[in-house]
Amino acid sequence: MKRKLVAAIGIAGMMVSIAACGSDDKGGGSGKGADAKELTVWLTVDAQNNWPELVKAADDAVTKKHPGLKIKHEYYGWPDKNAKLDAVLATDKAPDVVEMGNTEMLGYMVKGAFAPVDAAKFTGSSAWLDGLKASVTYEGKTYGVPYYAGGRVANWRKDVFAEAGVKSTPKTYQELTADLDKVQKKKGDKFSAWYQPSRDWYAAMSFVYDAGGSIAKEEGGQWKANLSSPESLKGLNAYKAVLDTYMHGDKTKDEADRPIVYGQGKSGMIFAAAWEGATAADPKNDKVGKLADKIENFVMPGPSGKNMPVFLGGSDLAIPVKSKAQALAAEWINAFTGPSGQKGLMAKGNLPNNKTDLATLKNDPKTAVPATAAESNWFVPMAPGWGQVEKAQVLQTMLQSIGTGKKSVEAAAKEADAAIDKVINTK
Fold this sequence. Notes:
Mean pLDDT: 91
Radius of gyration: 22 Å
CATH superfamily of the largest domain: Periplasmic binding protein-like II
Number of strands: 14
Oligomer: single chain
CATH architecture of the largest domain: 3-Layer(aba) Sandwich
Distance between the termini: 30 Å
């Protein structure tokens, strides 16, 4: 997905309460608004531009059951969607269905903006991908339905590694580092065998979770930072080793322009969102020449000996608590995210919202890598104050200190834990 998912922070002026949920209808939401005459669905331009036929199919399925129902669609770009949503949620004109980036969900769930739903009444919910299921769950209740997913993979320059005598992608982390060592030795210290921006917390936390650590843990209803645990420190030290050994670019940068940097030809590998390799190979970014023919995705192995757990990005669909058509909204979501919808989304290059469909993608060489990588995934702590942690860029600050050598891993982690503990339980 060609977007960066960010947590919803500070929902201005929105003081709403969670509506009661009857959960008697077959759609999965409350019985409220089952006889409504109009349904308003907010989606991003991704759906409008890339799979409008899937939207229409869901409309047709619902209107067939409810003759005379009028379904209105509004489409928004990611940068301005939440500001418009925040404004309308403060009125009585809330949409009935709204698409959210999966890390945007938490802030709205904490504030009570979305109505709870009965997950069991949505087709395929028992097999939802773990990372997406976590994104719609807060304090034991479900407040949305996963829509589709996008994961992270390793991508390397076949030509660069072949020059160093490497002919095939690695199956273990030890093989990977041995291959990287060969490239680094051949290319010298002005070349990044692995271009890994220090502040990229999605990659760094994959190392943490691979080592058995975590950003924070819940104990007795309270969340506590966990970056200083032995397991988390092991992961952070493995990440630092990558930065020290293979990353010879600016160690104060984040990952925002990684595809552009990769396209400039001064690095041999990235660990990134699945779309980034193709973006680097876009003619406007490709300074190598025919880069598309020279790059290859593979499943990132972890130091633990297992596949590296990856951050699972994606979109969810939620029903605002102020919706006057919650039952119909749930029906529409079920039609849109059900088996036929997932099949259509996969045909467009997306990962499905569930493990059953994901398994089928592993049999297709075109989709086997991202599908396999997505099986092992992690998600952010579903704590009430997590949005404040992201807003303060606590993890990025810690990682920059580690990457630049300003602080030791232990000192940087301890400082980050203290900053996290101050806000993570605050609504």
